[in-house]
Amino acid sequence: DQTLTWHAGSDTKLPTANPKGAFKQASFVNETEDTVELWWQGADGSEKSYGKLAAGERFNIRTRPGAVWVVKD
After folding, report:
1. CA 16 to CA 2: how far, in whole Å?
2. Concatenated DSSP letters for 3-65?
3. Of 1, 18, 21, 4, which Cα lies nearest the Cα of 38?
4. 8 A C-beta contact, residue 24 and residue 65
5. According to the model, what pLDDT value does residue 41 have?
6. Strand order, beta sheet including 47-53
7. What values do phi and psi take at 15, rounded to 5?
8. Eight-class DSSP state of 66
């Protein structure tokens, strides 16, 4: 298992998505007490919602290294 780098929200710009390489399995677990929404960001800056995760809920997906995922509350 490998842990993704967490970047807390701030006024700074998000990293630029640069997905490349073989697809890998990723799991996102909502460890908060609130519902959050999971977003994928394209290399062109576009965003796509992958839905909401309730407290304790897990979401599994195949994604590529360099992809940018955003969790919003």
Report:
1. 21
2. PPPP----SSPPPPP---SS-EEEEEE--SSS-EEEEEE-TTS-EEEEEEE-TT-EEEEEE-T
3. 4
4. yes
5. 93
6. 47-53, 36-41, 68-72
7. -60, 150
8. T
3-state secondary structure of 38: strand
pLDDT along the chain (73 residues), means of 10: 69 83 94 96 93 98 93 89
Q: Which two tokens stand for residue 4?
A: 């993704």
The pLDDT assigned to 31 comes to: 93
Supply the pLDDT for residue 1: 62
Distance of alpha carbon 52 from alpha carbon 32, whole angstroms: 13
Q: Letter for the amino acid at 4? A: L
Q: Locate 47 and state its tokens.
A: 């965003």
21 in Cβ contact with 15 (< 8 Å): no
pTM for the whole structure: 0.83
